[in-house]
Amino acid sequence: MALELHGRPLGPLQANCYILVEPDRKQALVIDPGAPDPWLWEQIEGLQVQAIVLTHAHFDHIGAVGPLRERTGAPVLIHEAEADWLSDPRLNGSARWAEFVGLVTAPPPDGNLEPGGSLTFAGKRIEIRHTPGHSPGGVSLILDSLCFSGDTLFYRSIGRTDLPGGDHALLLASIQRQLLTLPDDMTVLPGHGPSTTIGEEKRFNPFLDGWTPD
User: Fold this and answer.
1) CA-to-CA distance for 96 and 98, rounded, in angstroms?
2) Domain ranges, ordered by start, for the chain
3) Nearest alpha-carbon partner for 140 in 82, 86, 190, 181
């Protein structure tokens, strides 16, 4: 079955929210709903949201989790290392910028994203790859020729590592071992900014100069 992909940056930090839709079954999967937004509600109107999947738990990626879960009853899924971050503004980063974004919280998760495991949506397998470094529980999701990389890998850039739980060396290792070993023509859909490809980042990303897979 052909899936539709919709994406839009949401919230003050313009975090990319992605929605996968299976139109025949009227099902959807929402990745990183960063803020309540009319666009988000329009996209899921008349659809059954199967899950709310979080690449990590920083506030700019979880701002609409609570309202979305309340509207749809969909389970919230995240890596277990950041399960507690959803309800803790200090860990999810919103306390640091509370004067601008308020204290962001979300309901506890309903399940874990297990590294090396997978999700199934509309009969398709979504592979879960643990890509820590930007945050301890960061994951990237692989679906056919798409890689949802969260804040791990961006167009000619990488995730910041100066927030709680960040680790620059670990981030580079995650990218090298888990992402740069993917096919060069795989499309990367990051948590911020435009899409890119694995091959593009191998050639032109200044942070990855001289990369070598283990």
Assistant:
1) 6
2) 4-208
3) 190
Inter-residue contact 56 to 135 (CB < 8 Å):
yes
Listed in sequence order, the residues at least 6 apart from 2 whose beta carbon sits closer than 8 Å to its beta carbon are: none
Beta strand pairing status for 124-130 and 118-121?
antiparallel
pTM, full prediction = 0.96
Got the DSSP string for 76-134? EEE-GGGGGGGG-HHHHSGGGGHHHH-----PPPSEE--TT-EEEETTEEEEEEE--SS
Domain 4-208: give its CATH superfamily: Ribonuclease Z/Hydroxyacylglutathione hydrolase-like (3.60.15.10)
Residue 126 β-bridge partners: 119
114-155 tens-digit pLDDT: 999 999 999 999 999 999 999 999 999 999 999 999 999 999
Residues 178 and 130 sit within 8 Å (Cβ to Cβ): yes
Question: What phi-psi label fits residue 60: left (phi over 0), alpha (psi between -120 and 50 degrees) or beta?
Answer: alpha
Confidence grade of residue 91 (pLDDT, cut at 50, 70, 90): very high
Of 55, 201, 199, 52, residue with least CA distance to 128: 55
